[in-house]
Write a structure and sequence with these properties.
Layout: E1 3-7, H1 14-26, E2 31-35, H2 41-51, E3 56-59, E4 69-73, E5 80-85, E6 89-96, E7 100-108, H3 113-130, E8 135-140, H4 158-170, E9 173-174, E10 184-185, E11 195-196, E12 199-203
Parallel strand pairs: 1-2, 7-8
Antiparallel strand pairs: 2-4, 3-4, 5-6, 6-7, 8-12, 9-12, 10-11
Protein name: Exo_endo_phos domain-containing protein
Organism: Cephalotus follicularis (Albany pitcher plant)
Length: 207
């Protein structure tokens, strides 16, 4: 199965539905975490059905009015069972052949450093529960890990230290990646241009 996460920066525009549908089909994706959906809960079913009528879905609208995390999956390929839903993440498991659980978490970290402390505590707590099983964490953490992941500053901030300390405690490491190094930009040019690596996939030792 292929699992992906994408910060769509809003999914109310029907043209974005087409982009998401094309992304799923062209990459043979079985499960997608949509981040920063900005879709109100009363519109969510219509939006998801417009993308794919056959797919199942869940969201963290009970904790986030703007639906920071929406998870969609193809029920003919897998069954995702949410086990913990917070303002910044949805954690759950998929049962594979041979009765093996794979733990999957989709994350959308908020911009405020103090609020992200709840996310870091959440990851550490989940690590204790998920440690026997393979666990992958995908998403937009809204903070970089290293100075090389920010074009305008090499300074290691306290927010970055918080992030790295949490990942060490949760025993999570970056998974190998290809493609663009930076995942976010301020869409400006010249000396005003800033790019950062805010999105990543992490796995525990079992993964």
């Amino acid at each position: 199965i292929i699992i992906a996460a994408w910060n769509v920066r809003g999914m109310n525009d029907p043209s974005k539905h087409n982009e998401v549908r094309h992304f799923i089909c062209s990459n043979s994706i079985s499960m997608l975490g949509i981040l920063e959906s900005k879709v109100r809960v009363h519109n969510l079913d219509r939006v998801v059905r417009n993308i794919n009528k056959q797919w199942a879905y869940t969201s963290n609208h009970s904790m986030s009015l703007s639906g920071g995390v929406v998870v969609m999956w193809n029920p003919s390929h897998l069954d995702f069972v949410p086990t913990l839903v917070t303002e910044q993440a949805i954690h759950g498991h998929v049962l594979l052949a041979g009765s093996m659980y794979v733990r999957i978490s989709f994350v959308y970290g908020l911009c405020d450093r103090s609020t992200r402390q709840y996310l870091w505590s959440d990851l550490i707590h989940s690590a204790d529960q998920f440690r026997p099983d393979p666990w992958v964490v995908l998403g937009d953490f809204n903070v970089t890990r290293y100075g090389s992941e920010h074009t305008s500053s090499r300074t290691i901030t306290k927010a970055m230290q918080d992030f790295n300390k949490a990942l060490t405690s949760a025993e999570l490491e970056d998974l190998a990646c290809i493609g663009l190094h930076y995942t976010w930009s301020n869409m400006r040019t010249g000396t005003e241009a800033i790019a950062k690596k805010l999105d990543r996939a992490l796995g525990n030792w079992q993964w």
